[in-house]
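Ticket #4471: complex job returned nothing on first submit. Input attached below:
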Amino acid sequence: MEQALILICSIIAIGTAVMVIFSRNTVHSAMWMVGNCFIIAVLFLLLKFQFIAILQVIVYAGAIMMFIIYAIMMLNLRVSDDSAEPLKNLLNGRYLLVALLLIGLFIIGVGFGPMALKGSMTDPAMVKFGEVELLANYIFSEGLLPFELVSILLTASIVGAVYLAKKN
Amino acid sequence: MAEYQNIYLILSAILFTIGCGGVITRKNAIVVFLCIEIMLGAVNLAFITFSRANSSPEGIFMVMCVMAVAAAEAAVGLAIFVLLYRKTGSINIDKFNLLKW
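Support reply: We reran it on our side without changes. The output follows.
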């Protein structure tokens, strides 16, 4: 049952990702990308991480995609102007694609290996304390420095975006 | 071990390859940006799968960092696209050769 659900979600995810590339209309690409974000969130739910799934929907499908659609509207690009054949371009980049697929297979090979690491997020602990509490314990103890760096990065990007987009 | 770990990892690799193929084939800057988002989503999926397999919070923390970086990237990237559109009147990435020598 669960396996069938995972396979169906995988097929939908691959289909939406392919449609993002092959849509002529930029707005349609963005809409397929929203669907892809939702399906990835469903896969997170199937991995029993509810908090990350909600975060995925809010941040990706909500904030970032809204941003992109807003930019498409501002730039008035209903139909993209690349009429060059995607398949011909794909043939030109085939060695890179093969290399990437090999890297992906390497990642899969890592996944087949035995995993002995055991962290704090076991199933009983997640039932007892909740996922968010365990995550917060990690963030505010060991992950404090990266967390603060991310906040600095966000501030810097806001300042940079405002500076770039303002009219001189 | 997560139960269906291999399916997730294979899906992650396929999505990453699709995204990368889009980056190298499309000429529209916004679609290239969307393809980068697909690649980030695939990486997130792999991180979450490993986090599940090791029952460790580190993968989830990394996914949160990736989301924050994606948001920052969206803000700066779209500002750059607007700027280039003002300069050149299109966002075809073949026309962005300002730094070419």
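The helical segments of chain A are 2-22, 26-46, 50-75, 86-92, 94-112, 123-129, 131-139, 144-165. Closing as resolved unless it happens again.
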